[in-house]
Protein backbone atom coordinates (compact mmCIF):
# COMPACT_ATOMS: atom_id res chain seq x y z
CA UNK A 1 0.00 0.00 0.00
CA UNK A 2 1.54 3.28 -1.05
CA UNK A 3 0.77 6.59 0.66
CA UNK A 4 2.19 8.49 -2.30
CA UNK A 5 -0.89 10.61 -2.87
CA UNK A 6 -1.27 11.82 0.70
CA UNK A 7 -0.20 15.41 1.18
CA UNK A 8 0.09 17.92 4.01
CA UNK A 9 -0.41 21.35 2.49
CA UNK A 10 -2.60 22.89 5.14
CA UNK A 11 -5.21 20.11 4.80
CA UNK A 12 -5.16 16.33 4.89
CA UNK A 13 -5.92 14.41 1.70
CA UNK A 14 -8.59 12.00 2.94
CA UNK A 15 -9.50 10.76 -0.53
CA UNK A 16 -6.10 9.07 -0.85
CA UNK A 17 -6.66 7.11 2.32
CA UNK A 18 -10.08 5.96 1.13
CA UNK A 19 -8.72 4.99 -2.29
CA UNK A 20 -5.88 3.04 -0.71
CA UNK A 21 -8.28 1.12 1.51
CA UNK A 22 -10.62 0.34 -1.36
CA UNK A 23 -7.77 -0.90 -3.55
CA UNK A 24 -6.52 -3.22 -0.81
CA UNK A 25 -10.03 -4.48 -0.07
CA UNK A 26 -10.65 -5.26 -3.75
CA UNK A 27 -7.34 -7.13 -4.01
CA UNK A 28 -8.12 -9.22 -0.95
CA UNK A 29 -11.64 -9.92 -2.21
CA UNK A 30 -10.26 -11.08 -5.55
CA UNK A 31 -7.79 -13.44 -3.85
CA UNK A 32 -10.50 -14.86 -1.62
CA UNK A 33 -12.83 -15.40 -4.59
CA UNK A 34 -10.06 -17.13 -6.53
CA UNK A 35 -9.40 -19.38 -3.56
CA UNK A 36 -13.08 -20.33 -3.28
CA UNK A 37 -13.37 -21.13 -6.96
CA UNK A 38 -9.99 -22.81 -7.22
CA UNK A 39 -9.20 -20.65 -10.21
CA UNK A 40 -5.49 -20.16 -10.11
CA UNK A 41 -5.21 -19.77 -6.34
CA UNK A 42 -1.61 -20.34 -5.18
CA UNK A 43 -0.89 -23.76 -3.72
CA UNK A 44 0.07 -24.11 -0.09
CA UNK A 45 3.47 -25.13 1.21
CA UNK A 46 4.34 -28.74 1.79
CA UNK A 47 4.46 -30.03 5.38
CA UNK A 48 8.20 -30.62 4.91
CA UNK A 49 8.66 -26.89 4.28
CA UNK A 50 7.63 -26.06 7.85
CA UNK A 51 11.08 -27.12 9.11
CA UNK A 52 14.11 -25.65 7.36
CA UNK A 53 17.87 -25.59 7.85
CA UNK A 54 19.22 -22.05 7.73
CA UNK A 55 22.77 -20.72 7.39
CA UNK A 56 24.25 -17.23 7.41
CA UNK A 57 23.88 -16.82 3.66
CA UNK A 58 20.18 -17.63 3.70
CA UNK A 59 19.24 -15.98 6.99
CA UNK A 60 17.90 -12.74 5.51
CA UNK A 61 15.60 -14.48 3.03
CA UNK A 62 14.61 -17.57 5.00
CA UNK A 63 14.12 -15.90 8.37
CA UNK A 64 13.88 -12.10 8.21
CA UNK A 65 11.79 -11.84 5.07
CA UNK A 66 9.58 -14.82 5.87
CA UNK A 67 8.93 -13.45 9.36
CA UNK A 68 6.78 -10.81 7.66
CA UNK A 69 4.35 -13.65 6.82
CA UNK A 70 4.64 -16.09 9.71
CA UNK A 71 6.45 -16.21 13.10
CA UNK A 72 9.81 -17.96 12.67
CA UNK A 73 11.07 -20.01 15.60
CA UNK A 74 14.86 -20.50 15.59
CA UNK A 75 16.44 -23.60 17.11
CA UNK A 76 20.16 -23.12 17.78
CA UNK A 77 21.67 -26.61 18.01
CA UNK A 78 24.80 -28.69 17.43
CA UNK A 79 25.48 -32.33 16.67
CA UNK A 80 27.44 -32.86 19.88
CA UNK A 81 24.70 -31.30 22.11
CA UNK A 82 22.80 -34.04 23.97
CA UNK A 83 19.88 -31.81 25.15
CA UNK A 84 19.51 -30.66 21.52
CA UNK A 85 18.77 -34.26 20.57
CA UNK A 86 15.77 -34.14 22.89
CA UNK A 87 14.52 -30.66 22.02
CA UNK A 88 14.96 -30.55 18.25
CA UNK A 89 12.69 -33.52 17.44
CA UNK A 90 10.04 -32.08 19.76
CA UNK A 91 10.13 -28.70 18.01
CA UNK A 92 9.95 -30.41 14.61
CA UNK A 93 6.92 -32.41 15.70
CA UNK A 94 5.20 -29.28 17.03
CA UNK A 95 5.92 -27.40 13.80
CA UNK A 96 4.01 -30.12 11.94
CA UNK A 97 1.23 -30.23 14.52
CA UNK A 98 0.72 -26.44 14.48
CA UNK A 99 0.29 -26.80 10.72
CA UNK A 100 1.71 -23.50 9.45
CA UNK A 101 1.11 -21.30 12.49
CA UNK A 102 4.88 -20.96 12.81
CA UNK A 103 7.97 -21.88 10.80
CA UNK A 104 10.90 -23.71 12.43
CA UNK A 105 14.39 -22.64 11.35
CA UNK A 106 17.27 -24.85 12.55
CA UNK A 107 20.72 -23.24 12.86
CA UNK A 108 23.84 -25.33 13.48
CA UNK A 109 25.98 -23.13 15.73
CA UNK A 110 29.22 -24.85 14.71
CA UNK A 111 28.69 -23.82 11.10
CA UNK A 112 27.14 -20.41 11.82
CA UNK A 113 29.15 -18.75 14.58
CA UNK A 114 28.27 -15.23 13.39
CA UNK A 115 24.53 -15.81 13.81
CA UNK A 116 25.15 -17.30 17.24
CA UNK A 117 27.04 -14.15 18.26
CA UNK A 118 24.47 -11.78 16.77
CA UNK A 119 21.72 -13.37 18.83
CA UNK A 120 23.88 -13.45 21.95
CA UNK A 121 23.52 -17.20 22.38
CA UNK A 122 25.38 -18.25 25.52
CA UNK A 123 24.54 -21.94 25.47
CA UNK A 124 22.55 -24.48 23.52
CA UNK A 125 19.92 -25.53 22.89
CA UNK A 126 18.62 -21.98 22.65
CA UNK A 127 15.33 -21.01 21.05
CA UNK A 128 14.54 -17.57 19.68
CA UNK A 129 11.79 -16.19 17.47
CA UNK A 130 11.63 -13.55 14.77
CA UNK A 131 8.26 -11.86 14.23
CA UNK A 132 7.89 -9.18 11.56
CA UNK A 133 11.65 -8.66 11.58
CA UNK A 134 11.84 -8.42 15.38
CA UNK A 135 13.91 -11.00 17.28
CA UNK A 136 13.14 -12.13 20.80
CA UNK A 137 14.45 -14.91 23.07
CA UNK A 138 11.99 -17.68 23.94
CA UNK A 139 13.80 -20.16 26.19
CA UNK A 140 17.06 -22.03 26.71
CA UNK A 141 17.53 -25.71 27.39
CA UNK A 142 15.25 -28.70 26.86
CA UNK A 143 12.09 -27.22 28.39
CA UNK A 144 8.99 -29.33 29.14
CA UNK A 145 6.57 -29.74 26.25
CA UNK A 146 3.71 -28.01 28.08
CA UNK A 147 5.89 -24.94 28.65
CA UNK A 148 6.98 -24.92 25.01
CA UNK A 149 3.38 -25.13 23.83
CA UNK A 150 2.41 -22.22 26.05
CA UNK A 151 5.30 -20.15 24.71
CA UNK A 152 4.39 -20.96 21.11
CA UNK A 153 0.75 -20.08 21.71
CA UNK A 154 1.77 -16.69 23.12
CA UNK A 155 4.11 -16.09 20.20
CA UNK A 156 1.40 -16.88 17.66
CA UNK A 157 -1.05 -14.62 19.48
CA UNK A 158 1.40 -11.71 19.39
CA UNK A 159 2.02 -12.31 15.70
CA UNK A 160 -1.70 -12.23 14.94
CA UNK A 161 -2.73 -9.34 17.18
CA UNK A 162 0.18 -6.96 16.60
CA UNK A 163 1.21 -7.79 13.06
CA UNK A 164 -1.71 -9.65 11.46
CA UNK A 165 0.39 -12.76 10.80
CA UNK A 166 -2.08 -15.58 10.22
CA UNK A 167 0.38 -18.29 9.25
CA UNK A 168 0.93 -20.40 6.15
CA UNK A 169 -1.47 -22.50 4.10
CA UNK A 170 -0.28 -26.11 4.25
CA UNK A 171 -1.13 -28.51 1.44
CA UNK A 172 -0.43 -32.16 2.36
CA UNK A 173 -0.11 -32.97 -1.35
CA UNK A 174 2.39 -30.20 -2.10
CA UNK A 175 5.92 -31.24 -2.93
CA UNK A 176 9.25 -29.59 -2.26
CA UNK A 177 10.16 -26.18 -0.90
CA UNK A 178 7.64 -23.62 -2.09
CA UNK A 179 7.24 -19.97 -1.30
CA UNK A 180 5.07 -19.45 1.78
CA UNK A 181 1.51 -18.30 1.21
CA UNK A 182 -0.27 -16.20 3.80
CA UNK A 183 -3.45 -17.81 5.08
CA UNK A 184 -6.66 -16.09 4.11
CA UNK A 185 -8.68 -14.69 7.02
CA UNK A 186 -12.40 -15.31 6.67
CA UNK A 187 -14.31 -12.09 6.20
CA UNK A 188 -16.31 -10.99 9.23
CA UNK A 189 -19.56 -9.04 9.40
CA UNK A 190 -17.79 -5.71 9.66
CA UNK A 191 -18.94 -4.00 6.46
CA UNK A 192 -21.10 -1.47 8.33
CA UNK A 193 -18.32 -0.51 10.73
CA UNK A 194 -15.74 -0.21 7.97
CA UNK A 195 -18.14 1.89 5.92
CA UNK A 196 -18.69 4.12 8.95
CA UNK A 197 -14.94 4.65 9.14
CA UNK A 198 -14.77 5.62 5.47
CA UNK A 199 -17.69 8.04 5.92
CA UNK A 200 -15.89 9.61 8.88
CA UNK A 201 -12.78 10.06 6.75
CA UNK A 202 -14.84 11.66 3.99
CA UNK A 203 -16.28 14.09 6.54
CA UNK A 204 -12.85 14.97 7.94
CA UNK A 205 -13.68 13.29 11.24
CA UNK A 206 -10.38 11.57 11.92
CA UNK A 207 -11.24 10.81 15.54
CA UNK A 208 -14.45 9.14 14.42
CA UNK A 209 -12.60 7.09 11.82
CA UNK A 210 -10.03 5.98 14.40
CA UNK A 211 -12.76 4.85 16.77
CA UNK A 212 -14.65 3.00 14.04
CA UNK A 213 -11.54 1.04 13.08
CA UNK A 214 -10.82 0.28 16.73
CA UNK A 215 -14.35 -1.06 17.09
CA UNK A 216 -13.61 -3.60 14.36
CA UNK A 217 -10.23 -4.55 15.78
CA UNK A 218 -11.60 -5.02 19.29
CA UNK A 219 -13.60 -7.94 17.92
CA UNK A 220 -11.28 -9.05 15.11
CA UNK A 221 -7.64 -8.09 15.92
CA UNK A 222 -6.36 -9.58 12.67
CA UNK A 223 -8.65 -7.64 10.32
CA UNK A 224 -6.17 -6.32 7.77
CA UNK A 225 -8.40 -3.62 6.31
CA UNK A 226 -9.13 -2.18 9.75
CA UNK A 227 -5.46 -2.34 10.76
CA UNK A 228 -4.43 -0.47 7.64
CA UNK A 229 -7.20 2.09 7.98
CA UNK A 230 -6.43 2.70 11.66
CA UNK A 231 -2.73 3.16 10.99
CA UNK A 232 -3.42 5.66 8.22
CA UNK A 233 -6.11 7.56 10.15
CA UNK A 234 -3.87 7.85 13.22
CA UNK A 235 -1.00 9.10 11.06
CA UNK A 236 -3.19 11.77 9.49
CA UNK A 237 -4.49 12.68 12.94
CA UNK A 238 -0.93 13.13 14.26
CA UNK A 239 0.24 15.42 11.48
CA UNK A 240 -2.92 17.52 11.37
CA UNK A 241 -2.12 20.96 12.72
CA UNK A 242 1.67 20.53 12.60
CA UNK A 243 3.87 23.23 11.06
CA UNK A 244 5.95 21.19 8.59
CA UNK A 245 8.68 23.82 8.34
CA UNK A 246 9.10 24.00 12.12
CA UNK A 247 9.02 20.22 12.51
CA UNK A 248 11.79 19.77 9.96
CA UNK A 249 13.85 22.56 11.53
CA UNK A 250 13.53 20.94 14.95
CA UNK A 251 14.60 17.57 13.55
CA UNK A 252 17.62 19.11 11.82
CA UNK A 253 18.65 21.17 14.86
CA UNK A 254 18.16 18.36 17.38
CA UNK A 255 19.22 15.05 15.79
CA UNK A 256 19.29 13.33 19.21
CA UNK A 257 15.71 14.40 20.02
CA UNK A 258 13.65 11.27 19.37
CA UNK A 259 10.32 13.09 19.56
CA UNK A 260 11.51 15.54 16.89
CA UNK A 261 12.66 12.68 14.64
CA UNK A 262 9.37 10.83 15.08
CA UNK A 263 7.35 13.91 14.11
CA UNK A 264 9.55 14.47 11.05
CA UNK A 265 9.20 10.81 10.05
CA UNK A 266 5.41 11.15 10.14
CA UNK A 267 5.62 14.13 7.80
CA UNK A 268 8.08 12.27 5.56
CA UNK A 269 5.60 9.43 5.13
CA UNK A 270 2.59 11.69 4.54
CA UNK A 271 4.64 13.45 1.87
CA UNK A 272 5.39 10.13 0.15
CA UNK A 273 9.05 9.97 1.25
CA UNK A 274 8.82 6.41 2.51
CA UNK A 275 12.53 5.54 2.58
CA UNK A 276 13.35 8.83 4.32
CA UNK A 277 10.79 8.13 7.05
CA UNK A 278 12.04 4.60 7.62
CA UNK A 279 15.71 5.61 7.49
CA UNK A 280 15.20 8.45 9.96
CA UNK A 281 13.65 6.15 12.56
CA UNK A 282 16.15 3.34 12.02
CA UNK A 283 18.92 5.88 12.66
CA UNK A 284 17.09 6.99 15.81
CA UNK A 285 16.90 3.40 17.04
CA UNK A 286 20.61 2.97 16.34
CA UNK A 287 21.62 6.12 18.24
CA UNK A 288 19.41 5.72 21.31
CA UNK A 289 18.65 3.34 24.16
CA UNK A 290 15.91 2.62 26.68
CA UNK A 291 12.56 4.35 26.34
CA UNK A 292 13.75 6.60 23.50
CA UNK A 293 14.85 3.62 21.47
CA UNK A 294 11.61 1.80 22.10
CA UNK A 295 9.56 4.87 21.11
CA UNK A 296 11.38 5.12 17.78
CA UNK A 297 11.02 1.39 17.16
CA UNK A 298 7.31 1.35 17.95
CA UNK A 299 6.62 4.33 15.66
CA UNK A 300 8.56 2.61 12.88
CA UNK A 301 6.37 -0.49 13.23
CA UNK A 302 3.29 1.75 13.08
CA UNK A 303 4.53 3.30 9.84
CA UNK A 304 5.11 -0.20 8.44
CA UNK A 305 1.38 -0.78 8.97
CA UNK A 306 0.58 2.41 7.04
CA UNK A 307 2.61 1.37 4.01
CA UNK A 308 1.65 -2.31 4.11
CA UNK A 309 3.66 -5.44 4.81
CA UNK A 310 3.69 -6.45 1.13
CA UNK A 311 5.69 -3.35 0.13
CA UNK A 312 9.37 -4.21 -0.60
CA UNK A 313 10.47 -1.04 1.20
CA UNK A 314 8.93 -2.39 4.38
CA UNK A 315 10.74 -5.70 3.94
CA UNK A 316 14.05 -3.88 3.44
CA UNK A 317 13.44 -1.65 6.44
CA UNK A 318 12.55 -4.62 8.66
CA UNK A 319 15.87 -6.22 7.70
CA UNK A 320 17.77 -2.99 8.44
CA UNK A 321 15.99 -2.64 11.80
CA UNK A 322 16.85 -6.21 12.79
CA UNK A 323 20.50 -5.55 12.00
CA UNK A 324 20.47 -2.47 14.22
CA UNK A 325 18.71 -4.24 17.09
CA UNK A 326 20.67 -7.47 16.90
Please describe what this structure looks like.
This protein has 326 residues and is of the alpha/beta class. The chain has 2 domains: 14-34 and 186-325, no CATH class; 47-163, Glutaredoxin (3-Layer(aba) Sandwich), CATH 3.40.30.10. The chain contains 13 helices and 5 strands. It has a 5-stranded mixed sheet with strand order 1-3-2-4-5, with helices on both faces. α7 runs antiparallel to α8 (224-239), α8 (224-239) packs across α10 (258-270) and α8 (224-239) packs across α12 (290-307). The longest helix has 24 residues, at 14-37. It is globular. The protein starts with 13 loop residues before the first helix and ends with a helix. Mean pLDDT is 80; it is low at 1-28 and 177-187.
Strand content: 5-15%
- Average pLDDT reading: 80
Biggest β-sheet strands, sense, barrel: 5 strands, mixed
Counted by DSSP, the helix tally is 13
Strand order of the largest sheet: 1-3-2-4-5
Spans of at least 5 consecutive residues whose pLDDT stays below 50 are 1-28, 177-187
Helix content: 55-70%
Rg estimate, integer Å: 21 Å
Q: Give the H and E element order.
A: HEHEHEHEEHHHHHHHHH
| Count of the domains | 2
Number of strands: 5
Q: What structural class do helix, strand and pairing data support?
A: alpha/beta
Based on CA inertia axes, which overall geometry fits? globular
Spell out the blueprint of helices and strands.
Elements: H1 14-37, E1 51-53, H2 59-65, E2 72-77, H3 82-97, E3 103-108, H4 113-118, E4 126-131, E5 134-140, H5 145-163, H6 191-202, H7 206-219, H8 224-239, H9 244-253, H10 258-270, H11 274-287, H12 290-307, H13 312-325
Parallel strand pairs: 1-3, 2-3
Antiparallel strand pairs: 2-4, 4-5
Helix pairs in contact: 1-8, 6-7, 7-8, 8-10, 8-12, 9-10, 10-11, 10-12, 11-12, 11-13
Amino acid sequence: MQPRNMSMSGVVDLAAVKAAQEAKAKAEQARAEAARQGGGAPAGVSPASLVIDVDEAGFEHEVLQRSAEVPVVIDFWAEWCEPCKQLSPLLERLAQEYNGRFLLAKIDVDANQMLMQQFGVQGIPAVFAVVAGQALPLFQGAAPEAQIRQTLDQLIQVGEERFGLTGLVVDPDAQGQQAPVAAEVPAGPYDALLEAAVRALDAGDLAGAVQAYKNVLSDDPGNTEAKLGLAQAELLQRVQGLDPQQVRKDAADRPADVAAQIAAADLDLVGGHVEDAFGRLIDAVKRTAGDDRDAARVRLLELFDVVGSDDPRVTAARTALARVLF
